[in-house]
Backbone:
């Protein structure tokens, strides 16, 4: 780890006025600093900044510094969000990690995290060895010839399924962006991972009220049951009346370069009977544009099965 200056602002104004890299729980930043993947000269410890609070009175509002474990245990948090948080990392990390930091976490691609290897995200133009290398954990959706790394966040998948927005603050004011448009697919510029502008800070996560989102869940398929990133995951919410799907929300993770919403699957579910066969027909649409690599082709069959599993979990629970 290289030397750095630690600054501890106590107000939002002071935080966004100071140049540097923001530190909340530090569960991603400190790791990457130890590996010299990130080498900030100034680190801003923002834990004293008043960006906390969880309000479930009308939808959901979460201060960016709220810890993952506290959000997961809060009554009134939509089940898909709570479950995604509980399936993220270990209890110790969930006690430290902030929701804002989780949404900003970097990919776990081993080539990105190894400074001895080329990586277009870390060093633009150097290449992407994962395309022809060890790519079992990598993406099959949203990839490009420059990058095939998956996005690591579980809760971002659930939040995107439920139309979450971010309130961002800077020295010039604040703005609100849809989380689904906040993340950027790699294209030819994989080093640009999101729409956060220089000096901006995530202040709040806002999820609009959706009464039937109480019937939601998050399913995560991984190599082991504890402290492991997703091979595939699905966040779904269903509105069912008279055994038919009135409305649906579906997003997936572990298979794409960004948390991946599936509007075509949602459209196929609307009006369909709440049956396994209808769910299978709709879920098959999820992989129409998939681009599997040498070692991750299994994800093209695992992804529809994961979606169906999540949908069945909700319908069986509602009977």
Residues:
């Amino acid at each position: 780890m290289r030397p750095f200056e630690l600054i501890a602002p106590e107000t939002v104004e002071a935080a966004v006025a100071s140049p540097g890299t923001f530190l909340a729980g530090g569960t991603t930043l400190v790791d990457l600093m130890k590996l010299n993947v990130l080498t900030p000269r100034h680190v801003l410890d923002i834990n004293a900044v008043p960006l906390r609070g969880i309000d479930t009175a009308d939808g959901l509002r979460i201060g960016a510094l709220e810890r993952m474990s506290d959000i997961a245990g809060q009554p009134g948090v939509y089940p898909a969000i709570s479950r995604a948080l509980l399936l993220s990392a270990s209890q110790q990390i969930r006690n430290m990690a902030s929701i804002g930091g989780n949404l900003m976490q970097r990919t776990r691609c081993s080539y990105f995290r190894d400074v001895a290897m080329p990586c277009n995200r870390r060093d633009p133009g150097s290449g992407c060895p994962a395309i022809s290398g060890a790519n079992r954990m990598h993406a099959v959706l949203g990839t490009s010839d420059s990058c095939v790394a998956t996005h690591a966040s579980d809760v971002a998948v659930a939040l995107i399924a439920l139309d979450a927005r971010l309130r961002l603050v800077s020295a010039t004011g604040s703005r609100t962006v849809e989380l689904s448009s906040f993340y950027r697919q790699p294209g030819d510029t994989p080093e640009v991972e999101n729409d956060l502008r220089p000096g901006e800070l995530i202040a709040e996560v806002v999820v609009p009220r959706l009464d039937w989102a109480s019937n939601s869940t998050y399913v995560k398929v991984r190599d082991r049951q504890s402290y492991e990133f997703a091979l595939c995951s699905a966040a779904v919410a269903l509105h069912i009346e008279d055994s038919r799907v009135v409305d649906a929300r579906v997003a997936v993770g572990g298979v794409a370069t960004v948390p991946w919403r599936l509007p075509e699957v949602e459209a196929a579910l609307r009006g369909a009977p709440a049956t396994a066969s209808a769910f299978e027909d709709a879920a098959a649409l999820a992989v129409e544009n998939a681009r599997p690599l040498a070692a991750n082709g299994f994800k093209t069959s695992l992804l529809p099965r994961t979606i169906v599993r999540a949908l069945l979990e909700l319908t069986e629970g509602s009977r």
User: Anything to note?
Assistant: The two ends are 54 Å apart (CA to CA). Residues 15 and 260 are 31 Å apart (CA to CA).
